[in-house]
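Continuing the series of single-chain predictions for the mutant panel. This is the parent chain; the variants come on the following pages.
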Amino acid sequence: MIGGRRSGGWSRAGRLLGVLLGLQCALLPAGAVPPDGTGTRLVVASKPNAPPFEYTGTDGALDGYCVEVLRELARLEGLDLEFRALRNHEVWAAFDAGTVDVVSAAVYSEARTRRMEFSIPLAQVGYGLVVRAEGPGIRSERDLAGREVIVVQRSPMEAYAQGAGHRQRLAQDYEACLLDLARGAGDAALVPRVTWLHFSKRPEFRGLRMVPTEIYPYRMCLAVRKGDSLLLAKLNEGLFRLKERGDLDRIYEKHLGSLERTDLTLASAFRKLAGWILPALLVVGFLVHLAWTFVLRRLVKRRTADLQAELERRQETEAELARNLGALQAALAEVKQLSGLLPICAGCKKIRDERGGWQPVERYISENTEATFSHGMCPDCLAAYYPDFKPGNGAPAS
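Parent structure:
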């Protein structure tokens, strides 16, 4: 619906439409009848049995959301309207014949734009699927294959069902659709959700129920004949003024508000609460994220400190190992070892070196190890070489 919060954009757009209308009327020849309907009676086609948009009230006069909007608009814009109550197929036959000027509750479709022009939307119309409570198991539109669907003649749902390939049973209005279904004709009926809510209170429809699914919503507008651009501009200007004054929202609430509130299914309730739940979930998620980030940072900081201390301990251990290794390598560098078989002369006891030379055993050992020699005599050699030497008599004579 175009109802909602007021804004400067609606006011500016309305004033612009007024200026354009003024300029176009000023260009008309003297005595000419303005084509916007001012000064002449406009015939409005309305359906007597399409509540809450159009219906016959208890006093026998036409009433409903679209009818009341048009009456308020005519009062503001100085239009003289004559309402004619016609069934849906009669409305479009009269429109095609040119005997009506305005259709008060016309659902927008691309096919219709070829022969009429639409005002700004008055409401969004969501269609639903009504079935018998004890009838065949129809839970969604997918279950309509091979079933007979009851639709209003020359309504958007007739074109919709035809495009979907469903078998159709035509009725003159939505009440006739529901009556046929309640009496056992057809398998389902396609009607506006708010229209079903209006009729569902009647005892003859207690055996019917609406399937919790919704056909793509359509825009409900006012419609004029193709080329009546001035009349269309006048209607749009009046709608803008009603919006500015708050009358449009008031009329909408009067006819549709209470019905929409009773249609609070689980899905629609979620959609209505999503505007509050989603921001709340985002805030809670953000706070949880902050708390988790804080805890995670503390854990990372603590773990980093532990790893740093462990790294320092390992570095100290590695440094100590390196020092010990250097000391061992230095000690090993000072040690010379002899290993393997040494070729030694059996007579003079000289040792053959790697170059093939023979060296005294003292020189070979001194050159290949860290050992040094100091010479002396064992008792046997002393007796052999110095037989006159007696122990305690000093060194033997040379």
